[in-house]
Amino acid sequence: MAGGAGRPGPGPGEPLCCCEYVARGGERAHLVAVLCDCQDLDEGCDRLLTCRSLPPGMLERIADTVSDRFRIPWFTGAVKVNVSLIPPLVLLPVFLHVAALHFLLAFVILTSLPIVVLWYYYLTHRRKEQTLFFLSLGLFSLGYMYYVFLREVVPQGHVHHAQVALLTCGLVLMLVALSRAKRDPGYLPSCTSNDKSPCQGSTKLLSRKVLGIANGLQGAAGPGVPSSRVVNGDTKGYSRTPAEGSAEAKEDWCPKCQVVQPARAGHCRLCGRCVRRLDHHCVWINSCVGEQNHQAFILVLSFFLLTAVYGIMLTLNTICRGQATFLALFYCPGVYSDYSSALSFTCVWYCTIVTSGMGYILLIQLLNISYNVTEREARMALRDNSGRRLLGGLVIDTGQISQISSKTYQLSRTWEFKSTWCHHQQVSSLSGSSTWGFR
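Request: output the structure for the sequence above.
Response:
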């Protein structure tokens, strides 16, 4: 599928009109001609009308062309807009307002929304592509729920200014934690990336391998195992060919990033980078969760849960006067007699569904932290049948990292015992006493 116009691309220094852009094929195109030269789209519509199946790859080509031509005018040329940002901005308010018309409509819409979101997640996960849909959905949901709260709930006079300020502070803290979680999760320097890394021109073998203990940063060295190095407390991978190392080095070698992965590091197929102590790729922040942003990710979930639960309580106490908060969620008489109350009640149920999902994610994260296992390690243990399910399958105990941690703890206790004994011997020699003991 070509990109609109058939003119060649602009030459060096040649400016673009505010409605012009350079298409995927390198040719110069105009926004007026975005519907021209759409052979795949025409063929796809013709096959759908005649009940014929689409050939392999046609949907992908149509989606790529639509995403390339979806642009807005700008001073230096038409700017490309990510298509995945649009559905949450348009469909979420429409669905919530329609659901506020009747409780049956609310039941159908609020039941189908999670199913559609999960279907889109598995679709993008199977195609191994990044999308801003979930991040856009989360941020716009927060903004729209806050807007409905200020417009429909606060004017009724049952919410104090201090409560509004507290809810706003929780929202701001969550956004600050989100900005921190969006930063570098702990990417390893890669020969295939543009950043300056020790892998450029460095093929020197190391004689010791840093084993990740507890959080993957501290380690005990194993002789004769080449792997990685520690620079100022940060574990960084070295680049070399796997033929230069041992068989264990071949297992840690990442052919895509051209680095040797430290202990507990992993390659994210969506970001295309290796991450230190990789936990998982979170679609809700559109970034990996690794060594450097795991704490911020936990803070995001915690602040979101506290803020959402507090907002739900304030809303239910306003629109369902005299009802207990939990009971009002299931039984609120006369809430659909007024459209404003019905919209607020629908938004409460939408927040409850989202909060339940985020609460489950936070629970899994806290359980994994308590067992010193990452989500990636849990999936690998299930795949290799080397882990055991605990707490009804909520957590997977791999046994490997926890075993390393217990051995390290015993070694540290032994070293502490020896250090205390040596110190007591010195004190005893000075005082002339030959006996010692512990209190």
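Residues 1-5, 195-249, 403-421, 433-439 have pLDDT under 50 and may be disordered.
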